[in-house]
Amino acid sequence: MATAEITPAPVREAPSPGSADVTVTDPALVRRAVKAAALGNAMEWFDFGVYSYIAVTLGKVFFPSGSPTVQLLSTFGAFAAAFLVRPLGGLVFGPLGDRVGRQKILALTMIMMAAGTFAIGLIPSYGSIGVGAPLLLLAARLVQGFSTGGEYAGASTFIAEYAPDKRRGFLGSWLEFGTLAGYIGGAGLVTLMTALLSSDDLLSWGWRIPFLIAGPMGIVGLYLRMRLEETPAFAAEARNTGNTGNSGNTGKSGKSGKSGTERPKVPLREMVAGQWRALLLCVGLVLVFNVTDYMLLSYMPSYLTSELKYDETHGLLVVLAVMALMMVVQPFAGALTDRVGRRPVIAAGCAGFLFLSVPALLLIRQGSLLAIGLGMGALGLLLVCFTASMPSALPALFPTRVRYGSLSIGFNVSVSLFGGTTPLVVTALIGATGNLMMPAYYMMAAAVIGGFAVWRMTESAGRPLPGSAPSVAPR
């Protein structure tokens, strides 16, 4: 009868033949992994928060035009362009993460994200260099988009592979806690600057400050990620293939140093064709997650200001308050997914957006502070159903051998086609139809697609990741 071998994380030795390997997690390493992964996500969304909340000003700086709508469309066009190269980044970083390790790729994406954001703060205005300004902005956004192609899939995989099976939902929820913290940091800074600086100062130099802050943030994030060890699941997978890595201190025994192990290249066909069902589910889940996410956190500030003519500062404060509420609820919702499962929580979010998007937007359109707060708050709590579930549900769709690569491909294709383009598409739909209810209809359509994906997905709460050994917390 097979015996159970209990090994501490990160796994160092290959299990003996015939044994059932069980990983006992190290709480200190798990905390470090969660912090480093969440900080990278915060860095990514700090930039998105700044870009979204200062979009009107950026339109004036980089896209001079007599029409505010054209300026906003141009700014969101540059915003959306970054999402068009995300699948390319996923195709590069995802397979590399399955080959050389999650930790190394996450360190690289952190460097690139910080560099791209910092560069935006150095670009001269259209008035200084003409058409070169929007072209440089586009180039910086493309660097950001390429790097983020490997960020979310890698960070969620990293946490999922470190977390005990029964706490994966709770620990994974801190990844999106980092998203909200980054967004609040970026949006809060823009709100503060909007309140303290004159319009001329904000247009002249103030808009650069949030982007320049990305430099120091990137250095801190890189330091934290360089101190991480490779995940137990990846180390075990690499051992099982019989290939140790290039860390410089590996030997015949199969041991590896801190930098981890390396595996043979996995064919792209195996990541796509071999995982086609899981990829379709991933695209559907990410679609409803990101359409609603970008609608609420990226588009609504500009919707309140440009379409409803609401006071800019008050509109920003309302959205910040909603995100703060989401941060409070986030860890509890993540723990809930460990108890009742990911599927019921995600299904509740889909049903909520299907039936409550129109009432919520009608409340927002009333224009009073209370009505806007109630409408936005309702949408924010529904969004928590996704932010608390997806970081643990999505990595569980794929086996360890192709997890980073397949998740990167599915996630980024969906984000690029549906999530990142949400502000641009909805702005264009409103411009073409004059119907200010378009945001609600768009979220309802996404909820239908997401609901079908939930119906077809398998519950993963409390179970080992596919292709990985059971993972338990120490007693």
TrEMBL record:
It is a multi-pass membrane protein. Residues 240-259 have a biased composition (Low complexity). One of its GO terms (cellular component) is plasma membrane. Residues 33-462 form the Major facilitator superfamily (MFS) profile domain. Residues 1-21, 237-264 are annotated as: Disordered. The keyword Transferase does not apply. It is found in: Cell inner membrane. May be a proton symporter involved in the uptake of osmolytes such as proline and glycine betaine. This is Putative proline/betaine transporter. It comes from Streptomyces griseoviridis. The gene is proP.
